[in-house]
Amino acid sequence: MNTVARGELVLTNARIVLADEVLEGSVRVDGGVVTDIGAASRTGVDLDGDLLIPGLVELHTDHLETHYAPRPKVRWNPLAAVQAHDAQIAASGITTVLDAIRIGLDEQTDIGADDMLTLAVAIGAGNKAGRLRAEHHIHLRCEVSAPDCLPSFLAIKDDPQVRLASLMDHAPGQRQFASLEAYKVYYQGKTKMSDSELDVFTERRNRQSQQFAGKNRRAIAEICRDRGIVLASHDDATRDHVEEAAVLGIHVAEFPTTLEAAKASRQAGMSILMGGPNVVRGGSHSGNVSARALAEADLLDILSSDYIPFSMLQSAFSLVDSVEGISLPKAIQLVTKRPADAGGFTDRGEIAIGKRADFVHLRVEDGIPIVQTVWRQGRRVI
Questions:
Q1: Domains of the chain, with CATH numbers?
Q2: DSSP strand E in the chain: where?
Q3: Of 81, 127, 129, 205, which has the fewest Cβ atoms less than 10 A away?
Q4: Rounded-to-integer distance, Cα 300 and Cα 349, Å
Q5: What pTM was estimated for this model as a whole?
Q6: How far apart are alpha carbons 230 and 167 in whole angstroms?
């Protein structure tokens, strides 16, 4: 799917969401970039007074794995899995996506490093053939406490699709799972382990964290800094966690689990990223800090879809309805310009002259944004 349009496109009779206002009028595109924003035009594609927003920029989605490994020990054709994932991503208004690929195992699962390399190759094949609706890059989810983390990272670090790496440790009793009861509910629900099996698993994960986490964090961070790969922390819970992240050169704080960690992240100059499902559900599934609470405290910079692609767009509109002081332009920046800036994408993320013509045409019905049309670089993809 060739997504770059060389001809002219005019979208008119739209409510255009700009950086700080909503403007009624038209947008003109030529060669895949915005060339004019102004009054309604007599010609062009009539959007019937609906909203036109920038294409969403997604920094963290775990959704691809569900298409590739939909059931234990089941593997789908990786090219088909990427296509299915891409279709859902684009239909959710996302035009740039960093597909999260796990580096190092964080639970009892049969998904390994070879599977992740297979998916990276499939993403590259889809990009090269021009058959993907969204522009895909790779986010490496590095489980630093896993014994195979560093070797798996070294095997993929030179892939030019890699734009971001997050450093995470899901060992029990800390970070995301400071509550051992929440850890038990999550992992037993996911793996069906008995109490005794979970005890053995927990002891092993803690031992591995003590042995591998620190040195893997430092080694991966150094390589990423040298290669210009954006670094993110994950599930920071304390000021000490944030201070460690700052020393490593981290710029994005993914899913801080406490208000203390979010405040420290802001003070350290990090962009704070939270999940759309947390906003839509009204809280964290792990019992950690609410994304809405961070938004109310002006401690939220970026929203990601995490594990439900449409939650990214839905959560932005939910914040407009639920948090005083968050206007529609401000909410849309959480899923467009701010993640674009954090990911190093300077050519997109807002409707502005000279920027890429990545657009989402939508209307809101019963409080839910309904995607009508999506363009990437001026070419319709949905």
A1: 1-55+348-382 (2.30.40.10), 56-346 (3.20.20.140)
A2: 8-17, 22-30, 33-38, 45-46, 51-54, 56-61, 94-103, 135-143, 162-168, 230-234, 252-254, 271-275, 302-304, 359-365, 368-376, 379-380
A3: 129
A4: 17
A5: 0.91
A6: 11
